[in-house]
Amino acid sequence: MTMEKIVKKKLKLFVSLQKERLWLEAMAKDGWFLDNITMGIFYTFQKGEPRNMMYEADRFNLPKKPTLEEIRHKEFFMDMADALGWKEVTHDESMTYYFCKEYKEGDINELYNDEESRRQRGRKFTTYYYKKAQELVFWTTFVIIVEFLVMLLNRVAPRLEVLLDWYNYFALAYAVICNSVALLYWKL
């Protein structure tokens, strides 16, 4: 007889690694263990016996065509984490990897237990979010330029105004959403 998996899905947005980690640890104490994460905000949990788990996250800013040295650096880190008892749980599309380990009294219960390693990890996330904010600003600017061209076309050919009117609403909504997300990335 096979046991059916009990799954819970949550939508949550964090601007702090510490708050995300504490939330994941609280979920584990309630018997919900991280199984997957999508787009950095869609969490999937599996039900199990409540345990005191520790969670950590790290980014691997690998380019589309990484060098052998970059690949080896990631593999070295993954091996080191495994040797310290941290197991990879999942990773999302942006190459943020999530690790967990059962809490043990008197043990080192942090993957990043010194100030320098915490600072290096913080720089990885800062670099990533800064690039994402730049991309959003670029695409928002692009949409605004297209909107300006559409407005000019409406002036030149007023009969097209009805056909192009939908674009005004799209461009406004897109610009507001992109700027909001860009500000959030900069805040991170």
Helix content, binned percent: 40-55%
Widest β-sheet, arrangement of strands: 1-3-2
Distance between the termini: 47 Å
Give the strand tally.
Answer: 6
How much of the sequence lies in strands comes to 15-25%
Describe the structure.
The chain is of the alpha+beta class. 52% of the residues lie in helices and 20% in strands. The chain contains four helices and six strands; from the N terminus they run βαβββαββαα. It has helices spanning 17-29, 68-83, 115-156, 161-187, and strands spanning 7-11, 32-38, 42-47, 53-59, 87-91, 96-102. The strands form two sheets. It has a three-stranded antiparallel beta sheet with strand order 1-3-2. It has a three-stranded antiparallel beta sheet with strand order 4-6-5. A hairpin with a 4-residue loop joins β5 and β6. α3 (115-156) runs antiparallel to α4. The N and C termini lie far apart (47 Å). The relative contact order is 0.11. The mean pLDDT is 84.
